[in-house]
Write a structure and sequence with these properties.
heterodimer, A: 14 helices, B: D-Maltodextrin-Binding Protein, domain 2, Dipeptide-binding Protein, domain 3, 3 domains, twelve-stranded mixed sheet, about 30% helix, globular
């Protein structure tokens, strides 16, 4: 066990070094730095010598590997540094913005599940029903219409015309409704199709047909055989969605003034706020790896036979 | 299925009751601004929200009507010698936490601004600040006549730096409204500062929301959620006016310009620069691209500034003829020099969406005289223009006299040491004129010299000035006391009210 932990830690450490070095290098290869922004050259009187002086003071003239080692020495002490633009600790910025992103992702996925599970299931079992047609329509809208258009439409109906919800802001749960609905429709469209096609595949499998012939009740058939077999691809996809949404949904964040990590990153890229960008890469990598781990554990629990050592392939 | 309909009804009813506004009795105003901020630190925030939201104030203020600088938290000022200024501080002012504003507090605040903000430190050129009984003695490193103008800058806002609250969340200023809560990137809740020194603010509470999407801002107004929205969607302005909203507009201190790289062969020709300048259809830019929300520019400064020259009319000049005298010729409609067609590289960028459209218009107009223009999109204009010299022309947008003095723009753009001298201008006469301006303190003399330099730039056609874009604001008709300022510095004021 000790050897296993040591080997995994070494693998992780090496992967972390390689990933962070190359991301650091890539960020530094992009032309520009935050010096002109910090000096506000577009509205304050600054001469060229001052630009060079600040560039040197902030270490941007050092070789990349020196900059990387300096950054790494802070990271190992769990210090992500301060934003060059606002002067705030990166962790404080993340605390605010990841909370908003988490709310958006949770709200959006909840709506997606509420829409996709019943609609996907009904459209698989009752392909000619009204619900099936509704499911098809919703999945087409969700996967083909840009999310900002869905958002503007919902805004017009529920905020401008009916005045049920606020147009924008992050002031309590009611301001989360429209962004969640928008995101839920966009994400849910994909899940409706996925659930439907997976269920149809499973229902056509031999063991399900035989179970039917044996007279197993349809409720038991659905919960014990079909759902269990249909869940793995949906859970894999769900893991990918969670990881992707936790990276931020810039368009909706801007549209609804719901300030998540996506908007923070776009601003940081434009202003070349390296500590924030670098911290984001580290944080997001850890998050994605953790989500993948949880997804894998769930898949193992659902399909233990696939992971047994003696399984013949 | 039998539970679905009652469940939906219950949820809808819950939403409806929950969404009722509880601020019925308050005089409350909801303002939606087009930039967001993660920090309310007045010394670092580049969206200048604390000043705009009426939370902080500066020592001096730009008067929007006279375009001159008036004392604000300062009572008055005097220049002791070339590098020393004495600024008298008002005695009747208190911070939001009740502490009095004294010279020590002002010094602490300015010291922090200089420490936190490298741009301010570089621009103010302050050697030392000494707090005396009723005044501050400010020593500059060099003679710096623009010091008072630069103390208008929002990042020099005066705050109580000893206050308990985190400055980036709840800055304690002297303005008519104080922060009660701040959601980074989303909104600020404000309430009246009862002990405000310049009279009782009219509103009880204000919500200052950030939203960078013009469509959402417009919807917020139409839904009744917002009372004032800054820069609504331009395409919706007619509809808003038809719906009974008031739309106000003002010119800004910004100019969209065509920067000319004087290090390039064709751009070294004065006749060629004049030809390109004459090709620009400014009226079409105003009407066709900016929907009328701009005014044609003749120079860098708004004509209402006292130092804006009266430019001579170019009518009657045959600029094409001048170009031909300079060794160019038109062959089959193509402008040639030394047997080679004239081909220019024009840079533009998308963060100001009107600039690429202007670039296309210039490209199309240049074709009429046989000049081929290649448009190149860039990401960060300042970085690119400074580092790469492979371009001839660039669309760029600049503030020219943001604090009522032209010295900043002239130094930044036309001085060899200027950070925005992308043209690569090194004109000894021009540099000498700017250096002389930098030593001149007398206001009238500064204005005269600024005008002279602007005229010189026009004669040499160093850059071409396109339009001054306007800013527009839409508001409900029950909002009173709103002024759309050219500086865009002051938005929530003590006079703002909803009836």
């Amino acid at each position: 066990m000790t050897r296993f932990v040591a080997r995994k830690s070494l693998e992780w450490g090496l992967a972390f070094l390689v990933f962070t070095f190359f991301s650091f290098l890539l960020l530094r290869l992009v032309p520009g730095d935050p010096v002109l922004y910090l000096l506000k050259v577009d509205e304050l009187q600054v001469d060229v010598a001052e630009i060079d002086r600040l560039r040197e003071e902030l270490g941007f003239t050092d070789p990349v590997w020196v900059q990387y080692v300096n950054w790494l020495s802070e990271i190992v002490r769990l210090n992500l540094g301060d934003s060059l633009i606002t002067g705030q600790p990166v962790t404080q910025l993340f605390k605010n913005n990841y909370a908003a992103t988490f709310e958006l992702a949770a709200g959006g996925l909840l709506v997606a599940i509420v829409l996709a599970v019943p609609l996907g299931t009904i459209s698989a079992f009752r392909p000619m029903s009204v619900f099936s047609k509704l499911a098809t329509g919703l999945s087409i809208v969700g996967s083909s219409v840009p999310s900002f258009l869905i958002g503007l439409f919902l805004m017009y109906v529920f905020a401008v015309s009916l005045q049920w919800f606020p147009v924008m802001g992050r002031n309590g749960w009611d301001s989360l409704v429209l962004p969640s609905l928008t995101l839920g429709i966009a994400v849910g469209g994909v899940y409706i199709r996925l659930i439907r096609s997976t269920l149809l595949d499973v229902m056509a499998a031999d063991y399900v047909v035989i179970a039917k012939v044996r007279g197993i009740r349809s409720k038991k058939l659905l919960t014990r055989y079909i759902a269990r077999a249909a869940l793995p691809p949906v859970i894999s996809m769900f893991g990918v969605s969670v990881a992707s949404l936790m990276g931020g949904v810039v368009v909706l964040e801007v549209l609804f003034a719901y300030p998540g990590v996506g908007k923070l990153m776009v601003d940081s890229v434009l202003r070349r706020d390296f500590p924030v960008l670098q911290g984001y890469l580290v944080f997001t990598t850890c998050l994605v790896v953790s989500i993948n781990l949880v997804t894998n554990v769930m898949l193992r629990l659902l399909q233990p036979h696939l992971y047994r050592k003696d399984v013949s392939r | 299925m039998k539970y679905v309909v009652p469940l939906i009804c219950t949820i809808a009813l819950f939403f409806l009751t929950a969404c009722n506004d509880s601020n019925q009795d308050d005089r409350h105003l909801h303002f939606v601004y087009n930039f967001s901020t993660q920090s309310l630190d007045p010394h670092r925030d580049s969206s200048y929200v604390p000043l705009r939201a009426g939370v902080t104030e500066t020592l001096f203020k730009l008067n929007d009507e006279t375009l001159s600088v008036d004392p604000w938290l300062a009572q008055s000022f005097e220049q002791v010698n070339e590098t020393t200024w004495r600024v008298y501080i008002r005695e009747d002012v208190t911070f939001h936490n009740g502490k009095p504003l004294d010279t020590q507090a002002v010094k602490r605040s300015l010291d922090r601004s200089l420490e936190e903000n490298t741009g301010i430190r570089s621009a103010l050129r302050i050697e030392s600040i000494t707090a005396e009984a009723s005044s501050l003695l400010i020593e500059t490193t060099v003679p710096y006549p623009e010091l008072v103008n630069e103390l208008v800058h929002p990042n020099t806002s005066i705050i109580d730096v000893t206050a308990d609250d985190a400055i980036d969340q709840i800055p304690v200023g002297t303005g008519p409204y104080q922060v009660t809560s701040f959601q980074p990137g989303s909104n600020i809740q404000l309430e009246r500062h009862d002990a405000y020194w310049d009279g009782q603010p009219k509103l009880d509470t204000v919500t200052f929301t950030f939203n960078e999407d013009p469509g959402s801002r417009t919807m917020a107004l139409r839904s009744g959620e917002a009372d004032i929205v800054y820069r609504p969607e331009i395409e919706m302005i007619d509809t808003l006016e038809q719906d009974g909203f008031v739309v106000d507009k003002a010119e800004t201190f910004r100019v969209h310009q065509l920067t000319m790289n004087l290090e390039r062969e064709h751009m070294q020709s004065l006749a060629m620069r004049r030809l390109i300048d004459s090709l620009i259809n400014r009226e079409q830019i105003v009407d066709g691209i900016l929907n009328g929300y701009a005014t044609p520019a003749v120079g860098p400064f708004l004509p209402s500034f006292p130092f804006a020259p009266s430019y001579p009319s170019d009518e009657g000049q045959d600029v094409l003829d001048l170009v031909k005298q300079d060794g160019y010729e038109q062959v089959n409609g193509v402008l040639m020099k030394d047997g080679e067609p004239v081909r220019l590289n024009l840079l533009t960028y998308s963060s100001r969406p009107d600039l690429p459209l202007i670039a296309q218009l210039i490209q199309s107009d240049a074709k009429q005289v046989g000049i081929e223009i290649d448009i190149q999109m860039i990401d960060t204009p300042e970085e690119y223009m400074a580092a790469e010299r492979d371009w001839d022309l660039a669309t760029y947008s600049n503030l020219t006299a943001p604090r009522g003095d032209g010295g900043y723009y002239l130094n930044a753009t036309f001085h060899p040491n200027g950070a925005l001298n992308f043209s690569g201008v090194e004109d000894a006469t021009l540099t000498q004129k700017i250096d002389r301006l930098n030593q001149t303190v007398d206001r009238a003399e500064r204005d005269r010299m600024t005008e002279e330099i602007a005229q010189y730039v026009d004669e040499r056609v160093i850059n071409s000035f396109l339009v001054h874009p306007s800013t527009n604001v839409a508001l409900k008709d029950n909002v009173h006391g709103w002024v759309t300022e050219k500086s865009e510095y002051y938005m929530i004021t003590k006079d703002l009210d909803v009836l």
